[in-house]
Amino acid sequence: MKSTIYKHIVLEMTLFVTDIKNIMCINDLLLIRWASFKKKKMKHIIYILGLISFISCSNSDIDFERASLIVNNQKIELLTANEIFENYLIKKSDYLSNVISHIENEFLENAEYPFIIESIKTEITPDEKLFGFTEKIKNIDFKKLTEPFLNKIIAELPGPDTKILFIPSNPAFVDFFRNYQIGVTAITVGTGKIIVSIDPTSNNWQEQLPYVLAHEYHHSVWTSRNFKTKDFTPLEYLIFEGRADSFAKQLYPEVNSPWTNMINQVEEKKVWKIIKPELNKRETKMNDLMMIGNDEIPYCSGYTIGFNIVKKFKENNPNINDKSLIDMEPEIILELSEYEK
Fold it and tell me: What confidence score (pLDDT) does residue 46 get?
């Protein structure tokens, strides 16, 4: 049924655009086309109006949906991009201009890690799968869903005002992530700038969401307090991720986080030997290799190693909590973890 409706909508919109290329506003468009719709079934008109009612006179008028919370005197702004993705589904072209440009305009100003946006720039095919993802996300009340998590997370680690965007995952990558039982992925663009990608058809995205929010929020807080350069050494990157996972696991120990146990002990020792010579170098490809993997390094190995270093540190130093650990130098954490023993 949804497929039929979707194709009908796209056909009608194509007729609209063909007939009124010089019309600047959708209200005028509706007036001109209304006569041709009078004899059509009312339910089809309702579907069409429901999808296009948000369209305004230009791309710049389309905006994110916004909600906000105040938690411990911190402003938390929750964004979705339903209108932006629906507009892209109608235009069926130029993903960078119709989707990514909105995200960049919202998040890149003063961002410490602007390059991380590249990870979500792969074009999403504007097809029925994306339509289905967008429809499911549109029906989620993220303020109601995330408020309990955010209260818990921020109570444990106060930080800066934070903006969180929720968008659909790229359906082309869903099968890959499902192989690893991952329903939610996210990036931190900088202080108070988090983007969360959700596969709303996965069976564990709601379970993983609070953990992922805690992980990325920790990145944001660390960045607000300790950022010096985006050119991390592999050691700095391992501890950056390890601290975030350790913080999230402390808050949500029951949540399955596959990336923290992606490799066994034998594999971990092999990967550590590969990483170790590059540990304190900058401008090295090892940062990507130890996370993404290659023929020698399994996928997400760096997350597992970083998590285990911080885990061992906490076991050896139980008097140091996350509020203190966040500001410690990676070299000290590695040394006191006795990771290699």
Answer: 47
Residue 107's identity, in one-letter code, is F
What is the structure's pLDDT at 35? 41
Residue-wise DSSP of 268-331 = HHHHHHHHGGGTT-SS-THHHHHHH--SSS-TTHHHHHHHHHHHHHHHH-TT--HHHHTTS-HH
Q: What is the pLDDT of residue 123?
A: 96
Q: Helix %, strand %, coil % for the chain, to 5?
A: 60, 10, 30
- Closest C-alpha to 58, from 82, 85, 23: 23
Closest CA to 290 of 308, 310, 305: 305
For residue 81, give both structure tokens. Answer: 């991009």
State residue 115's pLDDT score.
Answer: 96
- Residue 97 has a CB neighbour count (10 Å cut-off) of 12
Provide the pLDDT for residue 31.
39
53-79 per-residue burial string, b: 16 or more CB within 10 A, e: under 16: ebbeeebeebebeeeebebeeeebebb
Can you tell me whether residue 162 is helix, strand or coil? strand
Low-confidence ranges of the chain (pLDDT < 70): 1-60
Q: Which residue has the tokens 């796209």?
A: 10
Residue 48 is predicted with a pLDDT of 52
User: What pLDDT, on the 0 to 100 scale, is given for residue 341?
Assistant: 87
Distance CA 140, CA 178 (A): 21
Place of tokens 């709303």: 200
Sign of CA dihedral 203, 208, 213, 215: negative
Distance CA 44, CA 183 (A): 34
